[in-house]
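User: I need a structural model of Peptide/nickel transport system permease protein from Cohaesibacter marisflavi for a docking pre-check later this week. Nothing fancy, just the predicted structure tokens so I can convert them on my end. Input:
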Amino acid sequence: MKQALKRFFDGDLWYSFSHSPIVILSAVVTLLIILAAIFAPWIAPHNPFDLAAIDIMDSNLPPAWNEFDGDIRFLLGTDDQGRDILSTILYGARISLLVGFASVAFSVVLGVGLGLVSGYVGGRTDTFIMRIADVQLSFPAILIALLIDGVARGIFPRELHDELAVYVLIFAIGISGWVQYARTVRGATMVEKGKEYVQAARVIGIRPGTILFRHILPNVTGPVLVIGTIHLALAIITEATLSFLGVGVPPTTPSLGTLIRIGNDYLFSGEWWITIFPGVALILLVLAVNLLGDWLRDALNPKLR
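Assistant: Understood. Predicted structure tokens for Peptide/nickel transport system permease protein:
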């Protein structure tokens, strides 16, 4: 364990990270937002899910520093239901991150699995999988997510829509993002399967499944990690977009996209804080994750070392 840590801190990846102030700042911002979301029940001033603690008379209050209507109990003000904006941002970040990580994990599992099979088996299987990928690439991801959400709303009873909204959202975003992983892994698998160690494994009788997941998969995870980091930011943006359009999580569940949509209705009447503060939180999160993804792509590219 100590030797592994020593190799890591002596490696090029850590050197690149420690000598880039912007990347360090991005990592700190990302970590702080994730920790704040995880510990939201303990650090949030109020619980936006506790209906007994929400007073409609506290709705649309400006930030605490407003000298006329500001309330010290609500640092960043309140929304149209009287929920504390700071608390809803913390709880909303949990939902946005949950949907982002879960949908990326779903895309990785599906895309990597299909990419391995497509690249290793080849033939008609490869053609069939890649033609499906080509067809999906002709549609924007947000359109696919909207289509799946609409189909789910038509299949499931109305009383289950709110309960299943997060799961449908994860599936919709995940199914729209597997193609990049599949195409990348397919190309890397086609290169790896022609190398000597794979041919030696075939000669000694190792099963194809073992070759794929024990020998080839570890050698194609680098590009997958880079794509996954960048895809996480896109997944969070897609969740916010769907929630803004009213087809994501229900209004009673505060995600960053839902808060921005609610605040948009009051933006021109002067209640700017309802949409501005969640929007800033979303921008900071996505920008930090994108910067980390760009750095990771460059750091893992041997041509740029």
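Before docking, keep this in mind: The longest helix spans residues 85-121.
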